[in-house]
Amino acid sequence: MKARYWLYEVKGFAPLVRELGGRKVGVFYVTTPIYYPNDKPHIGHAYTTIMADVLARWHRLKGDEVFFLTGTDEHGLKLQREAEKRGLDPKRFVDEMSEVFKRYWSLLDISYDRFIRTTDEDHVETVKKALMKIYSKGLIYRGTYRGLYCVSCEKFYSEGEYIEENGKKLCPIHRKELENLEEETYFLKLSAYEDYVKELLTKDIVYPRSYAKEVLSKISREGLRDLSITRPRNRVYWGIEAPWDPQHTVYVWIDALLNYISALSYGSDESRIAKFWPAVHHIIGKDILWFHTAIWFALLAMLDLPPPRKVIIHAFITLRGLKMGKSAGNIVSIDELVARYGGADPVRYLLMRFSSLEKDVEFSTEQLDNAFNSELADTFGNLVRRAGVLVLKKLGGSVEGGPEMVDTELSSRVRESVERVFRAMDEFRFSEALIAIFDIYREANAYLNKTEPWRLEDPRKPLYNVLECIRIATTLLYPFMPKTSMVVAKSLGFEIEGIERLSVGDWHRYNVSEAPILFKKIR
User: Fold this and answer.
1) What is the pLDDT of residues 415-457, one digit of tens each?
2) How far from the centroid of its chain's Cα atoms is residue 183's Cα?
3) CA dihedral 59, 63, 67, 72 (to 10 degrees)
4) Rounded to whole angstroms, how far apart are CA atoms 512 and 471?
5) What is the mean pLDDT of residues 496-501?
6) Phi, then psi, of 313 in degrees rounded to 5
């Protein structure tokens, strides 16, 4: 099949920016993977989900219309076996576990617009419609599959992909012995889209680019092989029925990938697809790169849909050198971190502060404690406390200002930091964005020490400039630490209005009501 690259201005698809009330408003669609609810989420799940939430909040702050999707992947052999092990009906089991995920996302202040479940009726109908469309094109055929399978990954492994220890072939992610399977199945003609997928991998879709090169290298070595997309019902009964053959259920990964368009009412409300799909940004871990590129790009083309705008991949949080997970027995719980640091916001900050797209991050309590104490408690918390106390004590809680009160040297340095934040966020470099935000707090602390407003008879100018630094930095910090940012804004008497008013001198009056103690140091 001749390769074809979709442009986002194709007929029928909305532009990424539209006019609303005389101003331009962007559209932004962000997704997490949908998670297997075989156990409660841990900080590996939180890592990905907080990244997506930060992006959603950032774009809302910019005034964009945002749709943020997360959810649970509730079919397949892995969940079927887990439910059977617990003596539960699979539906009852996933009903209970999806609520567990929702509770944890509420705890972490995840601002999703929809929590999708693959057992939702609209999703099931979308999967059937989409696959029947592909089937009617002759892109699905019957055959027999022989191969090594990891139930935890819900993935077949070919030679060279697995690892061998003591004569056993193991999954490289879960270190579990692979199962040898031979069974009747239906295949998806991925091979017909090899040139198309390879061309897309040279475009600016997969980020960072090194991951696209990794997928390209695999396709160059092995080709884009046709994919087994059903399982015999007598082995995997817990799944969506293949609409052309009731004796088969749909492979869980095909079921899961289609959630990104079922949430947009694919097949029933094309206006939502036209509006949001051109702006979709998938946030994923590197272990599911293949599914979200080679397979997903081809599947979308079969449905006459363009590829995602961005697939953003991050590396792992590791513990003892291994990806965090139940199988490896190296899980760090969300509850543990929230209890240790006194709430969700510090956890959100710390996970993003040490986040990385390219390199695995080894979990270190000592490193997190040091950052909590030096950055959150000292740099940020101490500044807010000092400024609040000084304004209450010296000025009765009220400070007025404007452009005439601006310290131009300080303003210039703040403006440079704001620009760095924007560049970092445009490149999904969350750690770099936080460093730039905290540079503004550091500038304010240094300015406070330099001007010594506590010694001045009229300290309005220095205190106004410090409060402006706090306002600007805290507005930028809001996507990362929403509750803390709102506490600071309320206490110091400003509003988090959006990021178009981020110059020193733009806010004219502060009414400070208290000087909060934001964080208590870890001893």
Assistant:
1) 999 999 999 999 999 999 999 999 999 999 999 999 999 999 9
2) 36
3) 40
4) 12
5) 83
6) -110, 135
At 203 the pLDDT is 97
- DSSP-assigned letters across all residues of 149-179: EETTTTEEE-TTTSEEETTEEE-TTT-PBPE
CA separation for the pair 27, 277 (Å, rounded): 10
Angle between helices 344-353 and 482-492 in degrees, nearest 10: 120
Q: Tell me the per-residue pLDDT of 120-153, one tens digit each, with 9 for 90 and over.
A: 999 999 999 999 999 999 999 999 887 787 777 7
The burial of 278, by beta-carbon neighbours within 10 Å (0-12 exposed, 13-18 middle, 19 or more buried), is given as buried
What are 361's strand-pairing partners? 317
User: CA 478, CA 471: separation in Å to the nearest integer?
Assistant: 10
Q: Phi/psi at 235 (nearest 5 deg)? A: -105, -45
Token duo for residue 501:
């008013």
Q: d(Cα 351, Cα 33) in Å, to the nearest integer?
A: 18
Q: Sign of the CA dihedral 153, 76, 294, 212?
A: negative
Of 75, 128, 171, 292, the catalytic one is: 171
DSSP H or E stretch at residue 242: strand 241-242
> Is residue 13 scored above 50 in pLDDT?
no
- pLDDT 10s digits, 324-355: 766 667 788 999 999 999 999 999 999 999 99
Residue 45 appears among annotated catalytic residues: yes
pLDDT above 80: residue 474: yes
Catalytic residue among 174, 189, 281, 282: 174
The whole-number pLDDT of residue 167 equals 74
In the chain, the percentage of residues whose pLDDT exceeds 70 is: 93
Beta strands in 382-444 (DSSP E): 398-400
Q: Can you count the helices (H) and strands (E) in the chain?
A: 19, 21
Q: Which three-class secondary structure state does DSSP give residue 69?
A: strand
Q: Is 326 a catalytic residue?
A: yes
- Cβ burial of 27 (10 Å; 0-12, 13-18, 19+) is buried
Q: What dihedral angle (degrees, nearest 10) is formed by the CA atoms of 375, 440, 68, 347?
A: 10
Q: Which residues partner with 389 through β-bridges?
A: none
Active site residue 469: no
Structural domains of the chain ordered from first start? 365-511 (1.10.730.10)
pTM to 2 decimals? 0.91
Of the listed 78, 128, 153, 281, which one is catalytic? Answer: 153
Q: Which of 45, 155, 189, 248 is catalytic?
A: 45
* Radius of gyration for the alpha carbons in the chain, expressed in angstroms and rounded: 26
Query: CA-CA distance, 56 to 406, in Å (whole number)?
Result: 32
